[in-house]
Amino acid sequence: MHLHVCRMCTHFAPRLPTGCDEQDAPEVREKTSANFCDYFKPSATAFDAAQSGVEKRARVELDALFGKGPSSDKDPAAPSAADVARAQAESLFKKRS
User: CA quadruple 28, 58, 86, 84: dihedral positive or negative?
Assistant: First the structure.
C-alpha cells in the first residue's frame, strides 16, 4: 500500500472536480496510486479500519484457498519465519575471522 497518495492527504476533497482543495496542486487522475505532489500532507483521518478488516478477511480467505494459512500442526517451539530471516540477515554482517 502506498502512503503518498491523494486519498491519504489532508487536501483530498472528492466533492471538488479536481479532488483537491489546494488551488495550485497539479491534477492527479489516480487518487489511489502513488504520486509526487509537493502539497501532500498526511491526514490522520485517512485510515479506514472497516476497510482494513475487509482486506484482512480477504487475505485469510486467499491464504486458505492456496494453502498458505496458519497450520495447526506447526511446532510452537520452532522459530518463526521472521526470526529465521532476521538471523540470516544478521549473519551477513558478522565479522568473519
Answer: negative
Listed residue (43, 52, 58, 48) closest to 5, CA to CA? 43
Give, as one character, the DSSP assignment of residue 54: H
Are residues 11 and 39 in contact, defined by beta-carbon separation less than 8 angstroms?
yes
Cell 530471516 -> residue: 85
The three cell numbers locating residue 58? 480477504
- DSSP 8-state assignment for residue 79: P
Total-model pTM: 0.46
> pLDDT of 6-51, one tens digit each?
988 999 999 999 999 999 999 898 888 898 999 999 988 777 667 6
Could you tell me the three cell numbers for 6?
491523494
Size of the chain in residues: 97
Three cell numbers, residue 51: 476497510
Q: Report the amino acid identity of residue 44.
A: A
Query: What gap in Å lies between CA 96 and CA 92, rounded to an integer?
Result: 10
